[in-house]
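Why Alpha-catulin? Reviewers of the renewal asked for a concrete example.
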Amino acid sequence: MATSPCSSSGVSSSSSAGLGAEAALEIRTRSVEQTLVPLVSQITTLINHKDKPKRSDRTLQAIQRVGQAVNLAVGRFITVGEAIANENRELKEEMSIACIEAKRAGETIAQLTDVANLDHPESDGRITIFTDKTGVVKAARLLLSSVTKVLVLADRIVIKQIVASRNKVLATMEQLEKVSSFQEFVQIFSQFGNEMVEFAHLTGDRQNDLKDEKKKARMAAARAVLEKCTMMLLTASKTCLRHPDCESARLNKEGVFHRMRLSLEQVIEIVTDSRPSGENEMAPTSIYTSIKEFKNKVEGLRENLYFLSKENLSAMLELILEHTEDFTDSAYTSHEHRERILEQSKQAKMELEQLVSVWMQAQSQKTKEITEDLEVAILKTCQCMNELKRELHHAATSLAADLLRYHADHMVLKALKITGVEGNLEAVAEYTCKLSEQKEQLVETCRLLRHVSGTEPLEITCIHAEDTFQVTGPQIISAAETLTLHPSSKIAKENLDVFCEAWESQLSDMSMLLREINDVFEGRRGEKRAYLSLPRPGKHNANLKALKPVKLDTEEQAKLGKLGLELHLLTCDVDSETEKWEDQENEIVRHGQSISSMAHSMYLFTRGEGLLKTTQDLFHQAEVFATEGIKLASVLTAFSNQLEDFDKPLLLLEIDKLIPVCQQLQITAKTTVQGKSATFTKVDTCIRKTKGVMTILSQVLPLSCKLLKKCGTGNGWLRSPHPWRENRLQTNTNEDSMEGKTDAFGIKSLEHHVANLTFLESK
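Here is what the prediction returned.
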């Protein structure tokens, strides 16, 4: 790797006492970001009380308690930080400096808030929170900066573990490639399997923690390849050991090892935020993205007639029309779609010419306000681009739907298996040609789907699908050739079956991808990715190996049909509410979207669709769902501290409903059951509890949006990118808002998150 794991965290080695350090701190994970929220809440309370004209004894006591709580939490926090430093020499110096800064800032805040026993804090002569306004802000900045630095440094340990796990997997893979006996292979593969499970757990947790949706999608794609290739590696290696002189078996095995190495490298690139040999990640721009940018520029003329040139706008349209040639030049695009795309392209050129004419006329007249002719030209140009986008979407999705229907019976794969067992070289050659044609059709379709996918994560999924078909097709052919040359070989037959299953699985994934693209186009779902990581080993999962993951049968799916539909309707309601928020980065909205996305995955499970394949997948998803609900409750409680007394009760009532339901769902998901009937009952209960959480969420979102506007903090409250900045601290609070709530945010939560980062315990 060109970049070491340590250098990827974005933390400057120099210490800083103020916000200047923030430029060197980049928060890439939600766990680090969420850990800062409780501390921000406490310090916000302190800062907002410094200008209160009237201070009761109760207020002074509350301020002192918060100051002491912050200092105590910081003390425990740096104890963990120092322990991390002692265990990791390469981080010791940076971590020690950050811990010293945090300790000094915590003690300063405790001193400045030691006001409970003073009759007149301003006239006593002592420096306090009331007399040194800049002192408390400076201490708060130093504390947040140093705590953030400790968290990001601790996050390096997570990165280091993932890199070390990858290195173990690679080393064992090298041994597997060189083995020459079955006995040795079985022994090493057992070790390899355990190492892959560990790597899957670590990367699954990291995938869920990433803030960048694009990186999260790339991580999901790489992990999917590793999961499927593990079984391929087993059968391809066994086949090669059984038939060591067979060239097609050797090529088959080498292909699997090569693909696994590429995927392992991709995971590390994402985790360490690096590219090998200075490469840049430059994917071709999709038509949807180009059209969106073009329309933004056109609509920008309403505000400023001079912010871009007509040449710039014309060049943007030319690039879009150049991309449409991927559709019009494709042999698989129907004649009707090709003609309509060409017609819309021609119309787009005409509309832009008219727009430029009116635009130049408005510039020459030096008009300050937009003319009616220009407004009409802008509307017509944007409408034309929307029509072009619709035609491209229909062309790509109808082609994909037709292909999936045509290949649903997997006739070519079945024929390859039959003719391979017969040792019929001529027939196998004929069907491998048909499979190659099918592969080219699917690869081309994935390229067209990428253009109309609508979101970056779905674009990445399309690229992953294209790569999978491109690689798996030749691997099936080499496996079929091996079987044809050794028709009585059970291992060669098993190997071909595994590769055919991978192809069928990718077709199934493509079908789901097509539905997601249509959902985005029709506005039914936003830019969401369902998360599913493997359950972590530990005391709660000690009996996991003994449990056989099962799927719901048709009868059980029918029983859950009504319940699943009700859950689906609730997710639609919640999605509708989240879209009403002006600020989509608000923490309440982000948690709401995440919860809704997971609920949608659980709804798909009731239909036998989606990423959750077995009941064990569902139970783990339910546990993650419940945890996200409890996180939302914490954010809502912090928000309630910013409200006036008469606005709080309604929100607190919903929070009091939300927490118990989430806790009950956690308990249900973790409870071990045996037998078909008990398992179905557990599934039913999980779906009902999930529905209960979604019902509460559908009430909480509109209420929070209303209260947010009423209290005047604006939708920027608790935005995720930089929650510790000074402008995030200037919110209004009631003078008794922190009363009795110090434990809820300041101590336990902060400590708990740091422990998670240190020991990789899943919440």
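The radius of gyration is 30 Å. This is the kind of structural detail the renewal will allow us to pursue systematically.
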